[in-house]
Design goal:
- 22% of the residues lie in helices and 35% in strands.
- With 181 residues, it is α+β, with helices and mostly antiparallel strands.
- The protein has one domain (7-168): Pnp Oxidase, Chain A.
- Strands 2-1-5-6-7-4-3 form a seven-stranded antiparallel β-sheet.
- β5 and β6 (91-105) form a beta hairpin.
- The radius of gyration is 19 Å and the shape is globular.
Length: 181
């Protein structure tokens, strides 16, 4: 892969990247759709060094992944605007991670059940208490989308390549609404 050109913004802090991916909820999966790329936000979990997402077992995303499993997955967070006395030097404070790899459909029901239990716990920690135990292999073999009746799909992206960028700023460097020079 081509390296990032803005080297001073590269983040190589593996723990910071790991914690960011664990904490964040939504990423954008970029797919090859022919003439134009297709990018769609999805809820995800970072589990054992891999991205997992789920959804209905049909539709555009499903058919594109069947044709071409190579994807880019981007997670980012914007922190605000970095001010400068010159307007053309104002910037955005952010952290972002891009993951390149191939998406594979999880076909092993026990793996899919483990992922779905982790999804529930990440997005609604403690809410269901012990009820997540009912999400097992048998459940996953029968779990169907209310939209189309197809089996739900769980996908895994194992990173072939990952890059992270950050543009940090102190609170004094950040623009506050209503502020002027």
């Amino acid at each position: 892969m081509e390296q990032l050109r803005y080297a001073k913004r590269i983040c190589e802090d593996k723990e910071k990247i790991e914690q960011f991916l664990i904490r964040s909820h939504t990423g954008i999966i970029g797919l090859n759709a022919g003439e134009y790329p297709y990018a769609v936000p999805v809820n995800y979990i970072w589990h054992k060094g891999k991205i997992y997402f789920h959804g209905i077992g049909s539709g555009k995303r499903e058919s594109l992944l069947r044709k071409e499993p190579s994807v880019c997955f981007t997670v980012y967070e914007e922190y605000g605007i970095v001010k400068d006395k010159d307007p053309w030097h104002a910037d955005t404070s952010y952290f972002s991670v891009m993951i390149f790899g191939k998406a594979r459909k999880v076909t092993f029901s026990e793996e899919a059940a483990e992922i779905m239990r982790d999804f529930v716990e990440k997005f609604m920690p403690g809410f269901y208490q012990n009820k997540t135990q009912s999400i097992n292999a048998n459940f996953m073999e029968k779990y169907r989308s209310a939209l189309d009746g197809n089996l739900a799909a769980v996908y895994c992206i194992a990173p072939d390549w990952l890059s992270a960028k950050e543009n940090g700023a102190t609170s004094d460097e950040m623009f506050k609404y209503g502020e002027s020079l």
